[in-house]
Specification:
It is a single chain. With 576 residues, the protein is an alpha+beta fold. Helix content is 11%, strand content 24%. The strands form eight sheets. A five-stranded mixed sheet has the order 6-7-8-9-13, with no helix packed on it.
């Protein structure tokens, strides 16, 4: 279904209202670090506003952003003020004034992902609920004031996907995504050769879309409001001009790591596809029983439920396939249909999708960390997607090493496209000044694109492993082998996916350089035991670790990897 393609000033009134830059004939600067198609220009609208997730743009041009905190960001310090942000360019210079508002960390908020406008209200996700604030009156300060009202509460917070993105239609139907608590509904989450629960009772309260009424306060979560099911993690929502509701789906992980007899690591890097689906009442998109194989262009039976590596279809013949599919593990976090008048006509009615970026495509290059455009007509895909904006991550395309990770997209009333970043809190504003009849054209390949999942190594003498301390009785060559396994250069080692290329950790795995241990005291034998047995129930991170990380490691490989982890933990301690 999919393949990766090759890589005038607005009216003065809009400028005064902060809806446009004074001039768009030329793009000043470096496009905010992005690579875009010819004629497009990106500027940094705001920066370092917190972990910016989804965003919306009001008719007066004010951009509202929801930010998030907690374990996914290393429990770092939340921004001052509330987790909601109002951005307004009052002078037309292309830079926004920033105002934080809403519930604060001191009041128990951890922020959230979802945000939407409906009537005279700003709706936002916070913790286990969706609340709303009245929008300011015309001419007032952009940030809403007063106490928020609870629309829905009691939304599940446990497991792999605790966020609650949502959308509201013109009549006030409130659609909420409740992502799955597990990867594939296994008896032991993310563990090797573990069958799936059958039936998967998790579907009663997770992995689907729930519908509520945006006009009614005090609603409580229950299984009864489920609208659609079988959607593992549908973070992106958008309505097209006909009122049809679409969502994205994050495909499941770890086919190769959990089912090594059925899939190679190369196959696991490319399966399953990420999806764009059309939501309808009662629709079932197949999770956890099925996954979408983009190469075969069909849903196939998952190994947890009798699948044989991609041949059997079984119950998947009755499930709803996607409208479009995208490369595996790119992580589609948000989407926005384009009906503005600023971009070329070729963008009308298609959809922009922000891909947060992968962590588990080894031994292939990590991917995503971009914004793509998928052309659509009458709700159906017409042609392949293009990479519209690239270069967000920089040279290190890993969750821990990326400079920026796209998380939200929204279209302003003047047709400009806004993109949010939840790594370092940047907001870009994308405009266009070229030929309005231009055909779709992909962005030039970012010059810093990685060629493999392993980071580019620094020159000899400043290699990160230089000066590594070998455990007593272990040869330095074994430590070096362990480093190559850790980085995925040998034997399919997937370690950097969770622990980062620098081993300093991510939301999915701990910092291995800190010298602090949750499961052991850091002895060589205890590290080896952890690698051998895995970590099915992490104490402080979201990513369960299967035995041997899910790789086919030999006893010598495990010895070498344990020696490497022991070494990097001692190296930092010795330097302090």
């Amino acid at each position: 279904m999919w393949s990766i393609p090759g890589k005038a000033s607005l009216a003065a009134g809009l400028v005064a209202a902060g809806l446009a830059s004074p001039a768009m004939a030329a793009c000043v600067g470096d496009n905010g670090g992005l690579s875009l198609p010819p004629g497009f220009c990106a500027t940094i609208f705001a920066d370092k506003i917190g972990h910016a997730r989804h965003l919306v743009v009001a008719p007066n041009g004010v951009v509202y952003v929801n930010t998030w905190s907690g374990r996914y960001y290393g429990n770092d310090t939340p921004p001052r003020g509330g987790f909601l942000v109002a951005l307004q360019d009052k002078t037309g210079v292309g830079k926004a004034d920033v105002a934080h508002f809403g519930p604060t960390a001191a009041q128990g908020s951890k922020g959230g992902t979802g945000i939407a406008l409906y009537k005279d209200w700003l709706y936002f996700e916070m913790n286990d609920r969706i609340e709303r604030l009245p929008l300011p009156s015309s001419g007032g300060a952009p940030a809403p004031e007063g106490r928020s009202e609870v629309v829905v509460s009691g939304l599940p917070l446990t497991g792999d996907h605790p966020m609650h993105p949502f959308a509201i239609d013109a009549k006030g139907a409130l659609y909420v995504d409740l992502g799955s608590a597990t990867n594939s509904c296994q008896a032991e989450n993310r563990m090797a050769d573990q069958p799936g629960h059958d039936p998967c009772v998790e579907l009663e309260t997770r992995a689907g879309i729930w519908r509520y009424d945006a006009n009614t306060l005090g609603q409580k979560f229950s299984p009864g409001e489920r609208f659609a099911t079988g959607l593992r993690n549908g973070e992106g929502f958008a309505f097209d001009r006909a009122g049809r509701l679409f969502a994205t789906q994050h495909g499941r992980d770890q086919l190769a790591e959990n089912w090594s007899k059925l899939y190679t690591h190369a196959q696991g890097a490319e399966l399953p596809a990420e999806e764009l689906v059309q939501l309808e009442p009662g629709a079932d998109f197949g999770w956890p029983y099925c996954y979408f194989d983009g190469e075969q262009d069909k849903l196939v039976l998952a190994p947890e439920y009798g699948g044989d590596g991609g041949k059997k279809i079984g119950v998947c013949a009755t499930k709803k396939p996607p409208v479009a599919a995208f490369p595996a593990h790119w992580a589609p976090n948000a989407m926005a249909f384009y009906d503005g008048g600023l971009f070329p006509e070729s963008y009308r009615s298609g959809v922009f999708i922000a891909f947060h970026g992968s962590w588990n495509r080894a031994p292939s290059p990590q991917g995503g960390y971009n914004v793509v455009f998928q052309p659509l007509a009458d709700g159906k895909a017409v042609g392949e997607f293009i990479v519209f904006a690239d270069g967000f991550a920089g040279a290190n395309k890993t969750p821990a090493g990326a400079a920026h990770r796209p998380s939200g997209v929204a279209v302003g009333p003047d047709g400009a496209l806004y993109i949010s970043d939840d790594k370092n809190g940047r907001i870009w504003r994308v405009t266009y000044s070229g030929d309005k009849t231009a055909a779709l054209q992909a962005a030039p390949a970012a010059s810093d694109a990685a060629s493999s999942s392993s980071p580019v190594l620094p020159p000899e003498g400043i290699h990160p492993d230089a000066g590594a301390i070998a455990p007593p009785g272990v040869r330095p060559e074994a430590v070096a082998l362990g480093g190559r396994i850790f980085r995925g250069e040998e034997d399919g080692g997937p370690c950097i996916g969770c622990h980062g290329a620098d081993a300093k950790g991510s939301p999915l795995g701990g910092d291995l350089t800190s010298g602090k241990w949750l499961w052991a005291k850091g002895s060589l034998s205890s590290i080896r035991q952890i690698i051998e047995n895995g970590v099915p129930h992490p104490k402080a991170h979201a990513g369960a670790m299967p035995p041997k990380g899910g790789a086919a490691l030999s006893e010598a490989d495990i010895d070498a990897l344990a020696a490497y982890v022991w070494s990097i933990s001692r190296k930092k301690a010795a330097s302090e």
